[in-house]
Design brief:
Chain lengths: 754, 754
């Protein structure tokens, strides 16, 4: 080929043979095109057709020459941006070629070639926006850490120091007995550091500091989660059950030894047939008048205590929940201290203990099954804060209803529903740290001819991780709030706080599940290797959505609490109040649901705090309102209320979800308000905007159904979420650095070996 | 209390003390109410107030008496449905009481009591709709199994027979070396049964039956998934790489021994720094003219072969992908057979093998890292189907472009993208079977006074599991279709089939991830115990979303393929065609987007096949159209095409998703059309409706944004999804029984020990 008429075909010939876009059919399209050009001479056509004969491909070096020719041509002129520009240039700017433009454009169309895209194939190392992007830190990381840690910084730092010691190196044995032993040793070290008894009265060696106790649970969760759960079982469940359900004589006798781990124990509530519905447990504690003892008994196999932490190997006693029977009468569920093993760790007579065996995770915790065969314990072993047996052998309680007494007892144990979501949050932070730091250095693909690009520069990768980063920050402030509410609770707030804690437990643990799933996938094959720790984080926290209350069941409870609050709110309104409420609602509708607002896509509006808060509050109210109405309609229509609640279960989950999201958003904005440092404030605001908008995006179906937003607005929100992800990317590494997780805890070679 | 005026307060007194709804504040409400009744005498007030004194609760037996009184009253009359009915009845139908109705209703409001709900508390064992529901089978399970198995039934039954033998009892050791050994033994049994070489030419001992090979992969997946992957590495990746990339001399030399497992081998493509972007691998194969050999070399640690199955312990050879270098020129990626170990299993000189160590799952597969230090192999070890080195030491290939040659090579290996999603599907079926059968027997909670209810009767539980049940059936038919397309492929269809297989691989493996997650949570604590097998199913399939192509990357490829098809469709249209297309689109809009259609909530319409197909097709076209337009706009606006593709990555995922959902729905409906048995047809139709509507529900944000549906319709769809779940419940157990998974494979004590 030496005529310009022929060289203009070079790009097509090259593309036909080189890339994997053109198929046999497209070769045919090209040959029809060549054959039917009246401006080509027969011998030119013949020559060109010979070059697209599938049976006789060009040689590899010929192909390479073509490419070089094209590349030189493109390099010679800045102005070549389309395929036709290239053709004109190859023709030595032959004027007649210009007139062929429509023909060539039709050809490109028929071949499905995007002309600008093709030109890139020939450009050397193009500097694209995507490849030029990277990590920049625009705020003081240490300052952000101190905002997160708040007043708990000293205890957090102490725990970090302890778990960074050499003796806390991770156990890698797959032998669960080796692992359990190691976890027990770690617990002993923590006890020696006076971390276990932090919440107990000072009188019994404790720190009387519940806030510190929660901070310890959370910080320990950067390390092994079996350790956290074992720690929680011993010092939280076992110790706190004595403290919350027992009286002075029990504290005196046990608390100090529990706190030093000299007396390892269990919390034996769940039975094989009763997990969520613990009210229905069947283990019995029968009072014996003659010798003032109780007989603890497992009436059948499905009433055995199951999943009991510390039971399989290390527990010497247990707080056992059992139905109290006196003279054949059932006095409801009460709690009793029952010895399981002697000091030599022999299992006592009448006790059968089985090992729950291998689990998906938390294999450093020795969960077991306990059966009691007419085990006799002294009367003083009844934890008698809420009910006693008097000298005459009669039952006495300031709370006459068995139900209410049981729920009061459970209420005192609600702390677990704060410790677990905080532990879950720490695990999510670890997973995100690993995924984001890895993605910042892992390179894969890149612009044609350019070097490969960190995968964190890909929009989809950002989309996968950054909404979780924002949500983790949001939940952090949400859980700080729940903790504060719990610590400073007044009696009349207990129901609300219990519901809030139950809800946040579900919200945080589900978020951890999702965050770790995405983190694993974001790390690809490396994420699958146990050494990189997402394995343990993910499998250990898997059960967090189930224990301390199954999340779905908890969400139903939260929703029922919201409904009952809602009814009271309406009930307590007098006529004037109702008018005001209706007026308020109308105002909301007028100000937020007018066509200007529902279609407002201004950037300032979409990023506006008031818009976010209004949308979340509106959604919460409307969903609650609609669930209440629907329930009433079903029951008024003659449905049994049990059936009616079943019909709306799905809606109830949304009631709880909308409530929790509103609380979390408010707390995030409150935390931002309280932030003094301008750079920290700016980055937190960006995160909060991403949290708000990505939740709205997730719920856009609802907002559109309701008419609160129109499609034009939800589309703009999707774009804004993309934009916020892109904008956050430079600071992403710093934002996980601000979690300040000890290196020795992260320990993943994919982020440490660089 | 003996006057009727006082007994009417009994329900309030009882409720105040018994349940956990009334708080301190509500006690006050009640006492204000009592104090301000002008129809109560002072001593009556005093008496009543003494009964709600928080400091002096009633005794437990008093409370019990109150309850009995109320229960007797309610039992005496069918007509008592509200709290006020009860009060009237307690007053001996005192006429004056009737006039107090507004007062009491206000009180109930203020206390937030839902009157009908309260009455239920006092009813004995109410027979509710929820508790009376249960398992009923309305179709012939064996017939449905035969519809699922189709022509592959004989091979499926053979595999089931083999894996049900005693020697296939699951390995429970946590020692990965014990586990790997067991898996190898299992593979050997399968090889002896001529299952491994099923796809190889008969000439070399094979069955020449690729359809059977896929059915084997899928059926084996009811058993241990390490076995499946080990099997796939040996007979699929290793054996098929020889068959697809090699020539007769290689078949002759290796295939028979590969098929009998006398020659265990590896497929060494992925490198530490190149997973998704395999085109960029850096291992070199340098041709030595003098002795006609290649030197295989790992230039640096990040170019080592990683995650290679069969490498750590058992592989004796590997197909190694490396850049071919001749005289300093790079001829792109080619494949070579490289020995790793001698017959005594000693690692050969120049080879370094490391163990990938513990993984989240698949620990029965010995994944390893391989480094080559100038390893010399003979010229004949080059797999030379697509490129050869001639006698003069020159490179020759019928495919001149290195890129295209490489992708052609990869294209021959696409079978893995059919085997993996089918294996994933089987794992999802196992998980659902365990979760649904357990939920059918697990009872928790129930109506007041009634017995506990199987958790599968709860709407939320149905919502969690049944859409996945429907989707698993849908994907089953989708994957049957892809398999058929692959087996009967024509060359010009290859690109489409490759994209389809890649997409279905992502679609199925993500679905398995989600299905197993939900199955685990649905089984609560029992789901966490390894013995119940969701652990292994979940953790083993976790990597399915990454290997054989990272799902997110595959979805981008699928979307690019759809875009290029879309461009060609437009390109090839002449003016007349375009007019027709526009007319078609307009017709769609007229017929489907008129106010009647967008707001149509008729049950018949919502369940209608045409509505489903139209909605899925419409969505697919619109999303594709909009992505194409957006891309063009970005590129026309001057963005580099690489950057432009980055901007739309999120939309690209939706393009692929909408395409796959449409294909799957069509195949499901096609399968239903071909079903003769009426009962099977009916149940499959119900499942298909649930699949269609739950996908629409999931995408309702999009449909609302687009205006294809209005809120009234998407709300009706949500209700219909609930209804379909409820309607499916009786047949749910039979529907998982129809998967016909061997008992010995399911093996979960929660469903076998009953």
């Amino acid at each position: 080929m030496n005529t310009s008429e022929l060289s203009i075909f070079l790009p097509y010939l090259y593309l036909a043979w080189s890339d994997d876009i053109l198929t046999k059919k497209e070769f045919e399209t090209l040959s029809v095109f060549i054959s039917s050009r009246d401006w080509l001479k027969p011998e030119e056509k013949e020559f060109l057709l010979s070059k697209i004969n599938l049976a006789v491909p060009p040689s590899r070096s010929e192909l390479s020459d073509w490419k070089k020719t094209i590349e030189r041509q493109i390099a010679s002129s800045q102005k070549i941006t389309t395929l036709f520009d290239l053709i004109v240039s190859l023709s030595d700017k032959d004027d007649t070629i210009i007139t062929y433009k429509p023909q060539f454009e039709e050809l490109e169309n028929n071949l499905g070639l995007l002309s600008e895209e093709v030109i890139n194939i020939f450009k050397e190392s193009p500097k694209t926006i995507t490849s030029e992007y990277g990590t920049v830190t625009e705020f003081d990381v240490a300052k952000l850490t101190s905002i997160l840690d708040g007043e708990e910084a000293p205890i957090i730092n102490k725990v970090k120091e302890v778990i960074s010691r050499p003796e806390f190196e991770y156990e890698t044995s797959t032998d669960i007995f080796v692992y359990r032993k190691k976890v027990l040793e770690w617990c002993k070290i923590l006890a020696d550091e006076n971390l276990g008894n932090m919440a107990y009265p000072k009188k019994y060696g404790g720190g009387e500091n519940i806030a510190d106790y929660f901070a310890i649970m959370e910080t320990l969760s950067y390390h092994d989660l079996s350790l956290v759960i074992k720690f929680g079982v011993q010092f939280g469940l076992w110790g706190m059950s004595i403290q919350s359900l027992g009286t002075e004589k029990h504290y005196e006798k046990y608390l100090r030894d529990v706190g030093t781990l000299d007396l390892p124990g269990c919390f034996a509530m769940t039975e094989t047939h009763h997990g969520s519905n613990v009210k229905g447990i069947e283990t019995t504690a029968t009072y014996n008048h003659e010798d003032k003892t109780f007989t603890i008994h497992t009436p059948h196999e499905n009433a055995q205590k199951e999943y009991i932490g510390n039971a399989a190997n290390h527990g010497r006693m247990a707080t056992v929940f059992a139905k109290l029977i006196i003279d054949g009468h059932d006095f409801g569920v009460n709690a009793f201290i029952v010895p399981l093993r002697d000091v030599e760790m022999n299992v006592l007579e009448g006790i059968t203990i089985k090992d729950c065996g291998l689990k998906m995770g938390l294999n450093g915790v020795d969960n077991g099954i306990i059966q009691f065969h007419n085990v006799v314990i002294p009367k003083e072993n009844m934890l008698d804060r809420f009910a006693q047996i008097n000298e005459k052998g009669e039952f006495e309680s300031p709370i006459p209803s068995d139900n209410r007494r049981f729920f009061t007892m459970l209420g005192t144990l609600v702390g677990g529903r704060i410790g677990i979501p905080r532990s879950a949050l720490a695990a999510a932070k670890s997973g995100l740290t690993i995924a984001i730091k890895y993605s910042d250095t892992r390179r894969q693909f890149g612009p044609e001819g350019g070097s490969e690009v960190p995968i964190l520069n890909y929009r989809m990768h950002q989309r996968r991780l950054f909404p979780y980063l924002a949500k983790v920050y949001a939940i952090h402030f949400g859980l700080q709030y729940v903790t504060q509410r719990f610590i400073h609770k007044k009696e009349e707030e207990m129901q609300e706080i219990e519901a809030l804690a139950a809800g946040m437990k579900a919200y945080s643990t589900w978020n951890t599940r999702d965050t770790l799933q995405e983190s694993r996938e974001a790390c690809g094959g490396k994420g699958y290797l146990s050494e990189n720790r997402i394995d343990a984080l993910k499998n250990d926290t898997e059960i967090y959505t189930t224990f301390e209350g199954d999340n779905t069941v908890l969400m139903q409870l939260v929703a029922k609490n919201r409904l009952s609050e809602f009814r009271k709110e309406f009930g307590e309104m007098n006529a004037f109040g109702i008018i005001n409420y209706v007026y308020d609602q109308a105002k909301t509708v007028i100000s937020q649901k007018n066509p200007f607002a529902t279609r407002n896509t201004d950037e300032a509006h979409l990023l506006d705090r008031e818009f976010h808060l209004n949308a979340f509050q509106y959604r919460e109210k409307q969903i609650l309102n609609s669930a209440a109405k629907r329930l009433k309609k079903l029951i008024d229509g003659g449905l049994d209320s049990y059936d009616a609640f079943n019909v709306v279960q799905h809606q109830m989950i949304e009631v709880a979800q909308a409530y929790l999201e509103r609380v979390v958003l408010e707390q995030f904005y409150t935390a931002i308000e309280n932030t003094k440092d301008e750079n920290c404030k700016a980055i937190l605001t960006e995160l909060c905007q991403l949290y708000a908008l990505s939740q709205i995006e997730k719920n856009k179906g609802w907002f559109l159904e309701d008419g609160y937003m129109e499609g034009v607005k939800t589309k703009a929100i999707r774009k804004m979420v993309n934009q916020l992800c892109w904008d956050l990317r430079p600071n992403a590494v710093a934002l996980v650095d601000a979690f300040s997780i000890p290196e020795s805890c992260l320990a993943a070679p994919i982020i440490t070996e660089q």
